[in-house]
Protein backbone atom coordinates (compact mmCIF):
# COMPACT_ATOMS: atom_id res chain seq x y z
CA UNK A 1 0.00 0.00 0.00
CA UNK A 2 1.45 3.39 -1.04
CA UNK A 3 0.61 6.26 1.26
CA UNK A 4 0.90 9.98 0.59
CA UNK A 5 0.32 11.53 3.94
CA UNK A 6 0.93 14.95 5.46
CA UNK A 7 2.61 15.49 8.79
CA UNK A 8 -0.81 15.15 10.44
CA UNK A 9 -0.63 11.39 9.83
CA UNK A 10 -0.28 9.52 13.10
CA UNK A 11 2.97 7.80 12.16
CA UNK A 12 4.79 11.00 11.19
CA UNK A 13 3.18 13.48 13.58
CA UNK A 14 5.03 16.07 15.60
CA UNK A 15 5.03 15.18 19.26
CA UNK A 16 5.28 18.88 19.99
CA UNK A 17 2.98 20.51 17.50
CA UNK A 18 3.70 24.13 16.55
CA UNK A 19 1.12 26.96 16.63
CA UNK A 20 0.51 29.73 14.20
CA UNK A 21 2.87 32.56 15.02
CA UNK A 22 2.40 36.07 13.83
CA UNK A 23 3.17 36.57 10.14
CA UNK A 24 6.88 36.98 9.50
CA UNK A 25 9.82 36.65 11.84
CA UNK A 26 9.45 37.82 15.40
CA UNK A 27 11.65 40.73 16.39
CA UNK A 28 14.18 40.25 19.20
CA UNK A 29 12.01 42.42 21.45
CA UNK A 30 8.93 40.28 20.71
CA UNK A 31 10.93 37.18 21.52
CA UNK A 32 12.06 38.72 24.79
CA UNK A 33 8.44 39.50 25.70
CA UNK A 34 7.44 35.90 24.98
CA UNK A 35 10.38 34.54 26.97
CA UNK A 36 9.52 36.76 29.94
CA UNK A 37 5.85 35.83 29.72
CA UNK A 38 6.67 32.12 29.60
CA UNK A 39 9.01 32.15 32.58
CA UNK A 40 6.96 34.45 34.79
CA UNK A 41 3.68 32.61 34.12
CA UNK A 42 5.22 29.19 34.70
CA UNK A 43 6.72 30.44 37.93
CA UNK A 44 3.42 31.87 39.15
CA UNK A 45 1.01 29.19 37.91
CA UNK A 46 2.96 25.99 38.59
CA UNK A 47 2.55 24.62 42.15
CA UNK A 48 6.29 23.87 42.41
CA UNK A 49 8.16 24.74 39.24
CA UNK A 50 11.55 24.03 40.83
CA UNK A 51 10.71 20.59 42.24
CA UNK A 52 13.00 18.84 39.76
CA UNK A 53 15.32 21.59 38.55
CA UNK A 54 16.70 24.30 40.87
CA UNK A 55 15.75 27.89 40.07
CA UNK A 56 19.37 28.89 39.31
CA UNK A 57 19.39 26.33 36.48
CA UNK A 58 16.18 27.81 35.09
CA UNK A 59 17.66 31.27 35.28
CA UNK A 60 20.87 30.12 33.61
CA UNK A 61 18.92 28.61 30.70
CA UNK A 62 16.79 31.72 30.45
CA UNK A 63 19.97 33.80 30.26
CA UNK A 64 21.32 31.61 27.43
CA UNK A 65 18.11 32.11 25.50
CA UNK A 66 18.26 35.89 26.04
CA UNK A 67 21.77 35.99 24.60
CA UNK A 68 20.60 34.27 21.40
CA UNK A 69 17.48 36.35 20.74
CA UNK A 70 19.12 38.38 18.00
CA UNK A 71 20.84 35.39 16.40
CA UNK A 72 18.16 32.72 16.32
CA UNK A 73 15.25 32.38 13.93
CA UNK A 74 11.70 31.62 15.01
CA UNK A 75 12.29 27.90 14.65
CA UNK A 76 15.24 27.85 17.07
CA UNK A 77 13.44 30.27 19.38
CA UNK A 78 10.44 27.92 19.62
CA UNK A 79 12.75 25.06 20.59
CA UNK A 80 14.55 27.32 23.07
CA UNK A 81 11.27 28.03 24.80
CA UNK A 82 10.36 24.35 24.89
CA UNK A 83 13.74 23.52 26.40
CA UNK A 84 12.99 25.98 29.20
CA UNK A 85 9.58 24.42 29.89
CA UNK A 86 11.11 20.93 29.81
CA UNK A 87 13.30 21.82 32.80
CA UNK A 88 10.19 21.48 34.97
CA UNK A 89 10.47 17.70 34.57
CA UNK A 90 6.68 17.66 34.41
CA UNK A 91 4.95 15.70 31.63
CA UNK A 92 1.97 18.08 31.67
CA UNK A 93 3.92 21.36 31.48
CA UNK A 94 4.85 21.89 27.86
CA UNK A 95 4.45 24.10 24.84
CA UNK A 96 1.74 23.04 22.43
CA UNK A 97 3.99 23.70 19.43
CA UNK A 98 0.76 22.91 16.39
CA UNK A 99 -0.01 24.40 13.16
CA UNK A 100 3.29 26.12 12.27
CA UNK A 101 4.70 22.93 10.77
CA UNK A 102 6.09 25.04 7.92
CA UNK A 103 9.00 25.84 10.24
CA UNK A 104 10.04 22.21 10.59
CA UNK A 105 11.49 19.45 8.46
CA UNK A 106 11.26 15.72 9.04
CA UNK A 107 12.85 12.48 7.96
CA UNK A 108 10.55 9.96 6.20
CA UNK A 109 10.67 7.36 8.97
CA UNK A 110 9.26 6.35 12.33
CA UNK A 111 10.20 3.91 15.07
CA UNK A 112 8.27 1.51 17.26
CA UNK A 113 9.23 0.05 20.66
CA UNK A 114 8.80 -3.70 21.09
CA UNK A 115 10.61 -6.37 23.14
CA UNK A 116 12.76 -3.66 24.76
CA UNK A 117 14.15 -2.67 21.35
CA UNK A 118 13.54 -0.08 18.65
CA UNK A 119 12.28 -1.20 15.25
CA UNK A 120 11.79 0.66 11.98
CA UNK A 121 8.04 1.16 11.45
CA UNK A 122 7.98 3.62 8.51
CA UNK A 123 10.43 4.31 5.70
CA UNK A 124 10.54 5.48 2.08
CA UNK A 125 8.77 3.02 -0.20
CA UNK A 126 12.04 1.92 -1.78
CA UNK A 127 13.22 0.77 1.66
CA UNK A 128 10.10 -1.24 2.48
CA UNK A 129 12.15 -4.42 2.93
CA UNK A 130 13.80 -2.82 6.00
CA UNK A 131 10.55 -2.41 7.91
CA UNK A 132 10.44 -4.38 11.13
CA UNK A 133 14.22 -4.46 11.42
CA UNK A 134 15.80 -3.49 14.72
CA UNK A 135 17.39 -0.02 14.70
CA UNK A 136 20.64 -0.03 16.66
CA UNK A 137 21.72 3.59 16.38
CA UNK A 138 20.86 6.99 14.93
CA UNK A 139 23.47 9.59 14.01
CA UNK A 140 26.13 7.19 15.26
CA UNK A 141 24.71 6.96 18.78
CA UNK A 142 22.68 4.19 20.48
CA UNK A 143 19.00 5.03 20.37
CA UNK A 144 18.69 5.06 24.16
CA UNK A 145 21.37 7.75 24.23
CA UNK A 146 19.62 9.70 21.46
CA UNK A 147 16.38 9.48 23.43
CA UNK A 148 18.09 10.89 26.51
CA UNK A 149 19.50 13.75 24.44
CA UNK A 150 15.99 14.52 23.15
CA UNK A 151 15.06 14.95 26.81
CA UNK A 152 16.38 18.52 26.54
CA UNK A 153 13.29 19.27 24.45
CA UNK A 154 10.75 16.78 25.77
CA UNK A 155 8.64 17.31 28.87
CA UNK A 156 8.68 14.06 30.82
CA UNK A 157 8.65 13.05 34.48
CA UNK A 158 9.61 9.40 34.00
CA UNK A 159 11.66 7.34 31.53
CA UNK A 160 8.60 5.72 29.91
CA UNK A 161 7.11 9.12 29.07
CA UNK A 162 10.45 10.27 27.66
CA UNK A 163 10.63 7.16 25.48
CA UNK A 164 7.10 7.73 24.22
CA UNK A 165 7.82 11.39 23.49
CA UNK A 166 10.96 10.39 21.62
CA UNK A 167 9.05 7.83 19.55
CA UNK A 168 6.57 10.54 18.58
CA UNK A 169 9.25 13.03 17.57
CA UNK A 170 12.09 10.79 16.40
CA UNK A 171 11.63 11.90 12.76
CA UNK A 172 11.92 15.68 13.33
CA UNK A 173 15.12 16.71 11.59
CA UNK A 174 15.33 20.09 13.29
CA UNK A 175 15.42 18.45 16.70
CA UNK A 176 18.51 16.44 15.71
CA UNK A 177 20.23 19.57 14.39
CA UNK A 178 19.26 21.75 17.37
CA UNK A 179 20.66 19.11 19.74
CA UNK A 180 23.89 18.77 17.78
CA UNK A 181 23.25 15.17 16.75
CA UNK A 182 23.25 15.92 12.99
CA UNK A 183 24.90 18.76 11.11
CA UNK A 184 22.42 21.14 9.46
CA UNK A 185 21.09 19.79 6.19
CA UNK A 186 22.93 16.46 6.41
CA UNK A 187 21.12 13.10 6.28
CA UNK A 188 20.29 11.02 9.33
CA UNK A 189 22.04 7.66 9.34
CA UNK A 190 20.20 4.73 10.92
CA UNK A 191 22.19 1.58 11.65
CA UNK A 192 20.03 -1.54 11.40
CA UNK A 193 20.58 -5.07 12.57
CA UNK A 194 22.61 -7.02 10.08
CA UNK A 195 24.95 -4.10 9.46
CA UNK A 196 22.78 -2.22 6.94
CA UNK A 197 22.48 1.56 7.04
CA UNK A 198 19.48 3.67 6.05
CA UNK A 199 20.35 7.23 5.03
CA UNK A 200 17.45 9.70 5.25
CA UNK A 201 17.45 13.28 4.01
CA UNK A 202 15.27 15.90 5.68
CA UNK A 203 12.21 17.20 3.84
CA UNK A 204 9.82 20.06 4.46
CA UNK A 205 6.52 19.01 5.90
CA UNK A 206 4.68 19.88 2.70
CA UNK A 207 7.09 17.77 0.62
CA UNK A 208 6.91 14.91 3.11
CA UNK A 209 3.18 14.71 2.51
CA UNK A 210 3.78 13.95 -1.17
CA UNK A 211 6.30 11.16 -0.56
CA UNK A 212 5.46 7.47 -0.83
CA UNK A 213 5.86 6.08 2.66
CA UNK A 214 5.77 2.40 3.53
CA UNK A 215 4.29 1.51 6.92
CA UNK A 216 4.95 -1.57 9.01
CA UNK A 217 1.22 -1.90 9.65
CA UNK A 218 0.34 -2.21 5.95
CA UNK A 219 -1.51 -5.45 5.42
CA UNK A 220 -1.15 -6.67 9.01
CA UNK A 221 -4.20 -8.14 10.67
CA UNK A 222 -5.43 -6.52 13.88
CA UNK A 223 -6.58 -8.31 17.04
CA UNK A 224 -10.17 -7.97 18.22
CA UNK A 225 -8.88 -5.79 21.04
CA UNK A 226 -7.17 -3.24 18.78
CA UNK A 227 -8.10 0.32 19.77
CA UNK A 228 -11.56 1.18 18.50
CA UNK A 229 -13.08 4.54 17.67
CA UNK A 230 -14.96 4.83 20.94
CA UNK A 231 -14.50 6.49 24.30
CA UNK A 232 -15.62 3.19 25.83
CA UNK A 233 -17.09 -0.04 24.52
CA UNK A 234 -17.40 -3.63 25.72
CA UNK A 235 -17.78 -7.19 24.47
CA UNK A 236 -17.07 -10.76 25.56
CA UNK A 237 -13.71 -12.30 24.67
CA UNK A 238 -14.92 -15.78 25.54
CA UNK A 239 -17.46 -17.40 27.82
CA UNK A 240 -15.61 -16.44 30.99
CA UNK A 241 -13.91 -13.12 30.09
CA UNK A 242 -15.73 -9.82 29.61
CA UNK A 243 -13.70 -7.03 28.05
CA UNK A 244 -14.15 -3.25 28.44
CA UNK A 245 -12.11 -0.86 26.33
CA UNK A 246 -11.77 2.57 27.95
CA UNK A 247 -9.97 4.85 25.51
CA UNK A 248 -10.69 8.36 26.80
CA UNK A 249 -11.61 9.79 30.18
CA UNK A 250 -14.51 11.66 28.62
CA UNK A 251 -18.27 11.21 28.33
CA UNK A 252 -19.68 9.93 25.06
CA UNK A 253 -22.52 12.32 24.21
CA UNK A 254 -24.43 9.50 22.55
CA UNK A 255 -23.88 7.09 25.42
CA UNK A 256 -23.27 8.67 28.85
CA UNK A 257 -21.08 6.63 31.17
CA UNK A 258 -23.97 5.96 33.56
CA UNK A 259 -25.95 4.34 30.72
CA UNK A 260 -22.92 2.39 29.52
CA UNK A 261 -22.23 1.16 33.06
CA UNK A 262 -25.85 0.01 33.38
CA UNK A 263 -25.52 -1.92 30.12
CA UNK A 264 -22.33 -3.56 31.37
CA UNK A 265 -23.98 -4.52 34.65
CA UNK A 266 -26.94 -6.10 32.83
CA UNK A 267 -24.59 -8.23 30.71
CA UNK A 268 -22.51 -9.26 33.73
CA UNK A 269 -25.59 -10.26 35.69
CA UNK A 270 -26.92 -12.36 32.80
CA UNK A 271 -23.61 -14.03 31.97
CA UNK A 272 -21.25 -16.25 33.88
CA UNK A 273 -18.05 -14.26 33.57
CA UNK A 274 -15.28 -15.08 36.03
CA UNK A 275 -13.02 -12.22 34.89
CA UNK A 276 -13.71 -8.64 33.81
CA UNK A 277 -10.92 -6.81 31.97
CA UNK A 278 -10.68 -3.02 31.69
CA UNK A 279 -8.29 -1.93 28.93
CA UNK A 280 -6.63 1.47 29.51
CA UNK A 281 -3.76 1.00 27.08
CA UNK A 282 -5.02 3.61 24.58
CA UNK A 283 -6.21 6.10 27.19
CA UNK A 284 -4.24 9.34 27.38
CA UNK A 285 -6.41 10.92 30.04
CA UNK A 286 -9.13 13.52 30.45
CA UNK A 287 -11.38 13.69 33.51
CA UNK A 288 -10.67 10.97 36.06
CA UNK A 289 -14.20 11.09 37.48
CA UNK A 290 -15.96 9.94 34.31
CA UNK A 291 -15.32 6.26 35.06
CA UNK A 292 -16.98 6.23 38.48
CA UNK A 293 -20.37 4.73 37.49
CA UNK A 294 -18.45 1.87 35.87
CA UNK A 295 -16.20 1.38 38.92
CA UNK A 296 -19.28 1.00 41.10
CA UNK A 297 -20.62 -1.67 38.74
CA UNK A 298 -17.26 -3.44 38.81
CA UNK A 299 -17.21 -3.31 42.62
CA UNK A 300 -20.53 -5.14 42.71
CA UNK A 301 -19.27 -7.66 40.14
CA UNK A 302 -16.19 -8.29 42.31
CA UNK A 303 -18.41 -8.75 45.36
CA UNK A 304 -20.21 -11.48 43.39
CA UNK A 305 -16.90 -13.24 42.77
CA UNK A 306 -15.68 -11.87 39.44
CA UNK A 307 -11.95 -11.19 39.18
CA UNK A 308 -10.99 -7.71 38.00
CA UNK A 309 -8.01 -7.10 35.73
CA UNK A 310 -6.72 -3.91 34.14
CA UNK A 311 -4.54 -3.48 31.07
CA UNK A 312 -2.04 -0.62 30.95
CA UNK A 313 0.70 0.38 28.53
CA UNK A 314 2.86 3.21 27.27
CA UNK A 315 -0.11 5.35 26.18
CA UNK A 316 -1.80 5.14 29.61
CA UNK A 317 -1.35 8.66 30.95
CA UNK A 318 -2.68 11.35 33.27
CA UNK A 319 -6.25 10.64 34.47
CA UNK A 320 -6.04 7.14 33.02
CA UNK A 321 -3.23 6.42 35.49
CA UNK A 322 -5.46 7.60 38.33
CA UNK A 323 -8.20 5.25 37.08
CA UNK A 324 -5.73 2.36 36.81
CA UNK A 325 -4.62 2.95 40.41
CA UNK A 326 -8.27 3.03 41.44
CA UNK A 327 -8.72 -0.37 39.81
CA UNK A 328 -5.82 -1.61 41.92
CA UNK A 329 -7.55 -0.13 44.97
CA UNK A 330 -10.49 -2.37 44.09
CA UNK A 331 -8.21 -5.42 44.04
CA UNK A 332 -7.71 -5.56 40.28
CA UNK A 333 -4.44 -6.92 38.91
CA UNK A 334 -2.79 -4.69 36.30
CA UNK A 335 -1.31 -6.52 33.31
CA UNK A 336 0.75 -5.21 30.39
CA UNK A 337 3.54 -2.65 30.29
CA UNK A 338 4.56 0.37 32.35
CA UNK A 339 2.46 3.47 31.75
CA UNK A 340 3.91 6.79 30.60
CA UNK A 341 1.99 8.46 33.42
CA UNK A 342 3.44 8.61 36.92
CA UNK A 343 1.64 7.51 40.07
CA UNK A 344 2.16 10.88 41.75
CA UNK A 345 2.40 13.72 39.28
CA UNK A 346 1.76 17.35 38.51
CA UNK A 347 -1.44 17.76 36.52
CA UNK A 348 -4.79 19.54 36.19
CA UNK A 349 -3.48 21.56 33.24
CA UNK A 350 -4.25 25.23 32.69
CA UNK A 351 -3.27 26.92 29.45
CA UNK A 352 -2.21 30.36 28.31
CA UNK A 353 -0.85 31.96 25.12
CA UNK A 354 2.38 33.85 24.63
CA UNK A 355 1.70 37.44 23.49
CA UNK A 356 3.59 37.58 20.18
CA UNK A 357 4.13 34.05 18.87
CA UNK A 358 0.67 32.89 19.95
CA UNK A 359 2.21 29.72 21.31
CA UNK A 360 -0.15 27.84 23.63
CA UNK A 361 1.44 26.65 26.84
CA UNK A 362 0.05 24.05 29.20
CA UNK A 363 1.06 24.26 32.84
CA UNK A 364 0.17 22.01 35.74
CA UNK A 365 -1.90 23.68 38.43
CA UNK A 366 -1.72 21.09 41.22
CA UNK A 367 0.20 18.09 42.49
CA UNK A 368 -1.75 14.84 42.44
CA UNK A 369 -0.47 12.81 45.37
CA UNK A 370 -1.99 9.36 44.94
CA UNK A 371 0.10 7.82 47.70
CA UNK A 372 -1.93 9.85 50.21
CA UNK A 373 -5.25 9.14 48.48
CA UNK A 374 -5.05 5.42 47.70
CA UNK A 375 -3.51 2.46 49.47
CA UNK A 376 -2.50 1.25 45.99
CA UNK A 377 -0.27 4.30 45.58
CA UNK A 378 1.40 4.15 48.98
CA UNK A 379 5.12 4.83 48.73
CA UNK A 380 5.19 4.93 44.94
CA UNK A 381 5.95 8.60 44.27
CA UNK A 382 6.75 10.19 40.90
CA UNK A 383 7.43 7.04 38.93
CA UNK A 384 5.79 5.27 36.02
CA UNK A 385 2.81 3.15 37.04
CA UNK A 386 3.95 -0.44 36.59
CA UNK A 387 1.79 -3.49 35.97
CA UNK A 388 1.50 -6.23 38.57
CA UNK A 389 2.16 -8.73 35.78
CA UNK A 390 4.51 -7.60 33.03
CA UNK A 391 3.41 -8.82 29.59
CA UNK A 392 5.02 -6.63 26.90
CA UNK A 393 3.63 -6.54 23.38
CA UNK A 394 6.15 -8.49 21.30
CA UNK A 395 7.19 -7.80 17.74
CA UNK A 396 6.31 -11.39 16.83
CA UNK A 397 2.75 -10.89 18.06
CA UNK A 398 2.53 -7.48 16.39
CA UNK A 399 3.41 -8.97 13.01
CA UNK A 400 0.97 -11.85 13.59
CA UNK A 401 -1.89 -9.56 14.64
CA UNK A 402 -1.99 -10.85 18.20
CA UNK A 403 -2.49 -8.93 21.45
CA UNK A 404 0.24 -10.27 23.75
CA UNK A 405 -1.35 -9.21 27.06
CA UNK A 406 -4.85 -10.40 26.17
CA UNK A 407 -3.54 -13.71 24.83
CA UNK A 408 -1.70 -14.15 28.13
CA UNK A 409 -4.84 -13.42 30.14
CA UNK A 410 -6.91 -15.88 28.12
CA UNK A 411 -4.32 -18.60 28.57
CA UNK A 412 -3.97 -17.93 32.33
CA UNK A 413 -7.46 -18.25 33.83
CA UNK A 414 -6.14 -18.80 37.36
CA UNK A 415 -6.72 -16.15 40.00
CA UNK A 416 -4.00 -13.50 39.70
CA UNK A 417 -2.24 -11.63 42.50
CA UNK A 418 -1.10 -8.06 42.75
CA UNK A 419 2.57 -7.26 43.09
CA UNK A 420 3.62 -7.39 46.74
CA UNK A 421 5.58 -4.09 47.24
CA UNK A 422 6.90 -5.34 50.63
CA UNK A 423 8.76 -2.11 51.41
CA UNK A 424 5.77 0.17 50.76
CA UNK A 425 4.30 2.00 53.79
CA UNK A 426 1.65 -0.02 55.59
CA UNK A 427 -1.71 1.75 55.78
CA UNK A 428 -4.37 1.37 58.45
CA UNK A 429 -6.76 -0.17 55.95
CA UNK A 430 -4.29 -2.76 54.73
CA UNK A 431 -3.31 -3.75 58.27
CA UNK A 432 -6.99 -4.21 59.16
CA UNK A 433 -7.26 -6.44 56.08
CA UNK A 434 -4.23 -8.49 57.11
CA UNK A 435 -5.81 -9.19 60.50
CA UNK A 436 -9.20 -9.87 58.88
CA UNK A 437 -7.63 -12.51 56.65
CA UNK A 438 -5.93 -14.10 59.67
CA UNK A 439 -9.41 -14.30 61.21
CA UNK A 440 -10.67 -16.20 58.15
CA UNK A 441 -12.21 -13.22 56.31
CA UNK A 442 -15.48 -13.35 58.26
CA UNK A 443 -18.50 -11.38 57.01
CA UNK A 444 -19.50 -8.18 58.78
CA UNK A 445 -22.35 -5.75 58.54
CA UNK A 446 -21.59 -3.20 55.83
CA UNK A 447 -20.82 0.18 57.35
CA UNK A 448 -20.27 3.61 55.92
CA UNK A 449 -17.03 5.47 56.54
CA UNK A 450 -16.88 9.14 55.63
CA UNK A 451 -13.40 8.96 54.13
CA UNK A 452 -13.63 5.83 51.95
CA UNK A 453 -14.41 5.78 48.24
CA UNK A 454 -16.75 2.81 48.49
CA UNK A 455 -14.77 0.68 46.03
CA UNK A 456 -11.78 -0.46 48.11
CA UNK A 457 -10.93 -4.16 48.20
CA UNK A 458 -10.45 -3.94 51.98
CA UNK A 459 -13.90 -2.48 52.79
CA UNK A 460 -15.14 -5.76 54.38
CA UNK A 461 -12.06 -5.72 56.62
CA UNK A 462 -12.85 -2.19 57.81
CA UNK A 463 -16.40 -3.24 58.62
CA UNK A 464 -15.11 -6.27 60.54
CA UNK A 465 -12.50 -4.24 62.41
CA UNK A 466 -15.07 -1.66 63.49
CA UNK A 467 -17.72 -4.23 64.39
CA UNK A 468 -15.28 -6.25 66.50
CA UNK A 469 -13.63 -3.17 68.04
CA UNK A 470 -10.25 -4.06 66.57
CA UNK A 471 -9.93 -0.48 65.34
CA UNK A 472 -11.89 2.48 66.64
CA UNK A 473 -11.52 4.66 63.57
CA UNK A 474 -10.34 8.24 63.41
CA UNK A 475 -13.45 10.06 64.63
CA UNK A 476 -16.26 11.78 62.72
CA UNK A 477 -17.17 8.51 61.05
CA UNK A 478 -13.76 8.23 59.35
CA UNK A 479 -11.41 5.26 59.34
CA UNK A 480 -8.27 6.95 57.91
CA UNK A 481 -7.71 3.77 55.95
CA UNK A 482 -5.08 5.15 53.58
CA UNK A 483 -3.02 6.87 56.25
CA UNK A 484 0.21 5.05 57.12
CA UNK A 485 -0.23 3.24 60.41
CA UNK A 486 2.03 4.05 63.36
CA UNK A 487 3.65 1.30 65.38
CA UNK A 488 1.60 2.17 68.43
CA UNK A 489 -1.64 2.01 66.41
CA UNK A 490 -0.61 -1.39 65.09
CA UNK A 491 0.12 -2.55 68.64
CA UNK A 492 -3.38 -1.61 69.77
CA UNK A 493 -5.00 -3.46 66.85
CA UNK A 494 -2.82 -6.53 67.46
CA UNK A 495 -3.58 -6.61 71.18
CA UNK A 496 -7.30 -6.38 70.57
CA UNK A 497 -7.20 -8.98 67.80
CA UNK A 498 -5.19 -11.47 69.86
CA UNK A 499 -7.15 -10.79 73.06
CA UNK A 500 -4.03 -9.90 75.04
CA UNK A 501 -4.30 -9.00 78.73
CA UNK A 502 -1.96 -7.81 81.46
CA UNK A 503 0.61 -5.05 81.59
CA UNK A 504 3.36 -6.72 79.55
CA UNK A 505 6.93 -5.72 78.97
CA UNK A 506 8.90 -2.48 79.20
CA UNK A 507 10.54 -0.28 76.57
CA UNK A 508 12.85 2.68 76.80
CA UNK A 509 10.69 5.28 75.02
CA UNK A 510 7.47 4.62 76.92
CA UNK A 511 7.10 8.34 77.65
CA UNK A 512 6.93 9.00 73.91
CA UNK A 513 4.09 6.50 73.56
CA UNK A 514 0.53 7.85 73.65
CA UNK A 515 -1.21 7.01 76.95
CA UNK A 516 -4.03 5.16 75.15
CA UNK A 517 -1.49 2.82 73.52
CA UNK A 518 0.94 2.08 76.37
CA UNK A 519 -0.78 -1.00 77.76
CA UNK A 520 -1.17 -2.51 74.28
CA UNK A 521 2.48 -1.86 73.42
CA UNK A 522 3.60 -3.66 76.57
CA UNK A 523 1.29 -6.57 75.79
CA UNK A 524 2.45 -7.12 72.21
CA UNK A 525 6.08 -6.88 73.29
CA UNK A 526 5.55 -9.49 76.00
CA UNK A 527 3.71 -11.73 73.52
CA UNK A 528 6.49 -11.41 70.95
CA UNK A 529 4.18 -9.95 68.28
CA UNK A 530 6.40 -6.88 67.86
CA UNK A 531 9.97 -6.08 68.90
CA UNK A 532 11.99 -3.12 70.11
CA UNK A 533 15.05 -1.70 68.43
CA UNK A 534 17.74 -1.61 71.10
CA UNK A 535 15.04 -1.25 73.72
CA UNK A 536 13.17 1.53 71.88
CA UNK A 537 9.74 0.83 70.44
CA UNK A 538 9.58 3.93 68.20
CA UNK A 539 5.81 4.34 68.71
CA UNK A 540 5.28 7.09 66.13
CA UNK A 541 7.28 5.39 63.38
CA UNK A 542 5.57 3.73 60.45
CA UNK A 543 5.73 0.13 59.29
CA UNK A 544 6.30 -1.56 55.95
CA UNK A 545 3.83 -3.96 54.39
CA UNK A 546 6.26 -6.81 55.05
CA UNK A 547 6.47 -5.90 58.75
CA UNK A 548 2.70 -5.74 58.97
CA UNK A 549 2.27 -9.14 57.33
CA UNK A 550 4.77 -10.69 59.75
CA UNK A 551 3.05 -9.20 62.82
CA UNK A 552 -0.41 -10.20 61.60
CA UNK A 553 0.76 -13.76 60.96
CA UNK A 554 2.21 -14.03 64.49
CA UNK A 555 -1.05 -12.71 65.93
CA UNK A 556 -3.08 -15.10 63.83
CA UNK A 557 -0.98 -18.08 64.88
CA UNK A 558 -1.36 -17.11 68.54
CA UNK A 559 -5.13 -16.67 68.22
CA UNK A 560 -5.51 -20.03 66.48
CA UNK A 561 -3.34 -21.79 69.07
CA UNK A 562 -5.40 -20.42 71.95
CA UNK A 563 -8.67 -21.38 70.28
CA UNK A 564 -7.73 -25.05 69.93
Question: Could you provide a short overview of the structure?
Answer:
This protein is an alpha+beta fold and 564 residues long. 33% of the residues lie in helices and 15% in strands.
What does this structure look like?
The radius of gyration is 28 Å and the shape is globular. The strands form 5 sheets. The chain has a 6-stranded mixed β-sheet with strand order 11-12-13-14-15-18, sandwiched between helices. A 4-stranded antiparallel β-sheet has the order 6-5-7-8. It is an alpha+beta fold. It has 17 helices and 18 strands. Strand 14 (307-312), helix 10 (319-329) and strand 15 form a beta-alpha-beta unit. Mean pLDDT is 92; it is low at 1-22.
User: How far apart, in Å, are the first and last alpha carbons?
Assistant: 75 Å
The radius of gyration over CA amounts to 28 Å
What fraction of residues sit in β-strands? 5-15%
State the share of residues found in helices, binned by percent.
25-40%
Number of strands: 18
- Characterize the overall form: globular
Count of DSSP H/I helices? 17
Structural topology:
Layout: H1 28-45, H2 55-67, H3 74-86, E1 94-96, E2 105-106, E3 110-114, E4 117-124, E5 135-138, E6 141-142, H4 143-150, H5 159-169, H6 173-178, E7 188-192, E8 197-200, E9 203-204, H7 205-208, E10 213-215, E11 232-236, E12 241-246, H8 257-270, E13 275-279, H9 292-303, E14 307-312, H10 319-329, E15 333-336, E16 345-353, E17 360-368, E18 389-390, H11 395-400, H12 404-411, H13 428-438, H14 459-467, H15 487-498, H16 515-527, H17 545-562
Parallel strand pairs: 12-13, 13-14, 14-15, 15-18
Antiparallel strand pairs: 1-17, 2-9, 3-4, 4-10, 5-6, 5-7, 7-8, 11-12, 16-17
Amino acid sequence: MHLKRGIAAAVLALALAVPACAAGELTPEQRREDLDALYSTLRQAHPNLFANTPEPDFLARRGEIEESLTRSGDQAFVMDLQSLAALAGDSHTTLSLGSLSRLFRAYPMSLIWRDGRWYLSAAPEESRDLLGREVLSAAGQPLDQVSQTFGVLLSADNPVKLRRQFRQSCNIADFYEYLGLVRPGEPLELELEGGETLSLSPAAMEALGDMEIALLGDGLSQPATAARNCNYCAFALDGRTFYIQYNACAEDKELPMADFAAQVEAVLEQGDYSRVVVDLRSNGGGSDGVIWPLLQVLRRAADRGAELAGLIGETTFSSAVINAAELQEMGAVLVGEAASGSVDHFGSVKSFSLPNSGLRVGVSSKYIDLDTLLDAGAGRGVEALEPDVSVPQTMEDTLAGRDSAVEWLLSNPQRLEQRAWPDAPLTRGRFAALLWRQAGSPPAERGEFSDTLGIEWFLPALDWAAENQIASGAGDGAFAAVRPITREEAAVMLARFAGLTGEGGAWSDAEETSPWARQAVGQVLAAGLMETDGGAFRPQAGMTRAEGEAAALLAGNRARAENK
